[in-house]
Each structure stands twice: as structure tokens, then as C-alpha cells.
Amino acid sequence: MGEKQGHAQQGQAHADGSPPRPVDKTNEYIRIESVTKRFGDFVAVDNVTLSVFKGEIFCLLGGSGCGKTTLLRMLAGFEAPTSGRIFIDGQDMADTLPYERPVNMMFQSYALFPHMSVEKNVAFGLEQEKLPRKEIDQRVAEMLDTVKLGDFARRKPHQLSGGQRQRVALARALVKKPKLLLLDEPLGALDKKLREATQFELINLQEKLGVTFVVVTHDQEEAMTLASRIGVMDRGEIVQVGTPTEIYEYPSSKFVADFIGSVNMFEGRLIEDEPNFVRIEAPELSCTIYVDHGISAPPGAAVWAAIRPEKIEISREEPAGKENRARGVVRDIAYMGDMSIYLVRIDSGKTVRVTLPNSVRQLSERISWDETVWLSWDSSSPVILPQ
To answer: Residue 315: phi, psi to the nearest 5?
Structure first.
């Protein structure tokens, strides 16, 4: 209990609610062609082909060991592909050393120099390039102002909060004006509230500077908030690429549906498939599932019906009709502030997860523990996936 589900978002989120900047899909900046990386007999990245466009925030999302960090390290040049090719801005990176690439990388640990001040940390890379002192001072000052740390220039890292150290690391990566910034779990060390606030800062900073970001994360909510597009990885493969809305609302597989947010999965059999609707027999529900579109599968095919918890209605009253409904008893409730999570054990014994916004304050109106309730959902809500 207590796990908060991910919510679909229309592209990149903005703190002020304005629409996201569209991605120019004619301007391909990164091209990964059939890239495989093996460590002995272990295949860390398996025949990945992917495009990332200039000026977008692209998130590689997956669990531990899925290959996302290895793919990021190959973009940075820290690992070489076993096979396949990587292009950045049209240039084949095969013989290009890490420090010669138009790339910078920000690590989860931040790797700040503890004995150096904030401004010295940010200036370090420019000093290594032996730029004129005046230019270094000007670029450092401008970057610290950009990340709102101008007043902290002379402090040491241990005198800063976690969020401030994260911004120092970001400033150090961006002050060299890379065309591509790679971020490996950039917000993982921050607490939840600070992480959410920093996500919006990161989006606004990226749009201001126009740098292409590739972000590795295992946090689905972080990917949904940050990304213009997401690549979901599993066992070295990219199993689906799409906008946050596409990934959440139209998952391509049971794995993606189950990995992104919370979902109720019902095993069933296709009993009727027409161009504009299908019916699925689902023994766990003791009813048929009616879906308002066809799926082009043979009659009798075994399928999964995936229904998101927020798309299920819960009521004390029996709904009309005999499809898309189930009866059950409320076995647990988690109050999350903005919403409540209900775990309902339906007549078949399966537990169904339902989320409701807490739009009223009167406790007497809310459904409570051990109540018998009816669950129902719209015919557009289920996503039908092959088994």
C-alpha cells in the first residue's frame, strides 16, 4: 500500500500548465543502429535501433539490469558496442573518444569536488580546456545565475542542500555547452517533494538552453513528467517507444502495461471480434468485457484485458447492463491525500485496484471497509493485449 500510480501526461509537463513544445521529428540528432553490447556471455543491450531528435528530453526507462545505463555509457563513449553503430549529429562515433564527443554526462552521485567552491567546481572543465580566464568567469557566472545559484558561488558542496548540489552538477555539465547531455538517474538522491520540484526546473532549463537530454531512470513518474518521449527497456531490448500518453494509454505488451503505473490485468478469450467492437470472455470477472473497437485477432484467441485503476468506477448501486462490471467487497483503503486507493475482492476472489480522487471532504459520503460495491468501466477503457 502507499504506492502512488503514474498519470498520463500530454508530452512534457510545464509548471504553468502551458502546452509542451513540439518535437521536430525531421531533425534527428542521435541514431542508434542495431547496437548490441555483450559482456562475455551476457547480452546487456540487444540489437537496439533508436532515434532521438534535437531538442527533446528522451527518457530510457526500465528496471535494474535492463541495459539502460549501458546504452547511455555507449553514447558517452565509455563503452564500445560489440556490434552496430551510433551516430551523433550525423557523425559515426565508432572512432571518437569520449572527450571528443559533443556530449557531457551527469552522474547520479554528482561527483563534485568537496574541497572546491561551487564556482570552482563549475569552472573545472573549462579550465581543463585552458580557456581565457575572463571567458571562464563570465560563463560560470551566467550558468550559476541560470540554475539560481549565483549567491552560493563561494560555498563548498557540504554547505549545500541535495537539490543545490544537483544544480551545481547540472551547471558543471552544461557550462561546456554540450549539444547532448546524458543524465544517469539525475534526481535519484533527492527526496520525493524536492525531486518533483526539480523535475520542472530541469524541463524549463532544457527548453531555455535547447540542449538535447537523454535521461536514464527507473522511476516511471519521473519519466512521465520529464520526457517528450520514453523508451521502455526490458532485458536489453527497447520494447516500446512513445510519448508518455502513448506509453500509458496504449501499451504494446503486458510488460509495458504492468510496468508503467498501476493496472488490473484480466485473462480472457476473444469470443466476438467485429471492426468496431470486441467481446471477451473473462472468467475472473463473471461477465464479458465489451470494448468499443476491433483488435484483429482470431476468434478464440487468448488475450489480456488491461484496465487502469482510475478508469474503474465504484458504486454502492448495481450498474445497468450485464457487461463491463463486477461485484466485490472493499478489503483495504489507502488514503493518499489527493486520492484514495481501494482494493476490492470481487466474487471470483481476484483483487481489483481502484483509485478515486478525494473531491469531497465529507467522510460519510465515502465508501468504507467491508462494504459490498459494484465496479464498472467504460467500453473505451480496456486495452486488449496478446498473451
So the answer is: -150, 155
Using CA atoms, how far residue 332 sits from 301, 312, 313, 328, in Å, is 34, 16, 16, 12
Query: Over the stretch 174-218, which tens digit does the pLDDT of each residue have?
Result: 898 888 999 998 877 677 777 787 888 888 888 888 899 999 999
Average pLDDT of the chain is: 89
The number of C-alpha atoms within 13 Å of 5 and in the hemisphere containing its C-beta is 25
pLDDT in tens, 21-62: 567 777 999 999 999 999 999 999 999 999 999 999 999 999
List the Cα angle 255/257/263 in 5-degree steps.
120
**Sheet containing 229-234: which strands, arranged edge to edge?**
103-106, 180-184, 212-217, 57-61, 229-234, 237-242
Tell me the torsion sign for CA atoms 259, 263, 267, 271: negative
pLDDT over threshold 50, residue 19: no
Q: Which residue has the cell 571567458?
A: 135
Give the bridge partners for 87, in sequence order: 31, 92
In angstroms, rounded to a whole number, what is the distance separating the alpha carbons of residues 234 and 226? 20
Count Cα atoms within 13 angstroms, Cβ side, for 145.
6
Q: What share of the chain is helix, strand, coil (3-state, %, to 5)?
A: 25, 35, 40
Dihedral of the CA atoms 284, 287, 292, 294 (nearest 10)?
A: 60
Distance CA 182, CA 186 (A): 9
Q: How does 340-356 read in b/e, with b if 16+ C-beta sit within 10 Å?
A: bbbbbebeeebebbbbb
pTM of the model: 0.87
